[in-house]
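Per reviewer request, we include the raw input and output of the structure prediction for the construct analysed in the revised manuscript.
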Amino acid sequence: MTGNYLLFPSERNREGNQGAMPHTSKGNCMSTILVVYYSNTGSNKYVAERIAHDLECDIERIRPRLPAFPMILMSSFLKISAGIKPLQHNLADYEKVILCGPVAAGQFLAPLRDFVKKYRQRINKLYFATNCGSSDKHKDGKFGYGKIFTALEQELGDKLVFARAFPIALVIPQDKQDDADYVMKTRLSDENFKGEIAERLDGFVAKVKL
């Protein structure tokens, strides 16, 4: 792990050879990139839409078969499949897929896990972005996002290129950092998505463009 993100072997190899894998585009749209997301509160939807906007690429929502969040949370903790509806886009048509979704209480939520298991063979290169409640300071703790990044690498191997966290703590005032209720109620928006969190997104988009 490097800082608060993971740079995987396939990405490290390309950093020394930028331009060796040029992407093709259709008009202004990077048609070889697809953003796929699941969001409960709307914050990961916001991140996904920002990424898709900056890359001018396709985007699609993951649709759980059981949309009630308590059921999703239960299946996540029990590590059982809740099922997702088929995607409208064919992942095999895309050079790069960006998966965006939450990490809750240290759990890779069921819709995200189901997506990876269902479409693993069709994914060429995966990038993962998460807006989560766990902070960078606690990323390696029981409820941190670090273990999710590691589990994804173990599941996908070289297919996983890059993973980046956008903790909600980055938009919360310092004196509210330990206020659990305040943290739970905070949502990303144009008003608070600025400073370090916006810089992280710019860096993430730059990595995808390599």
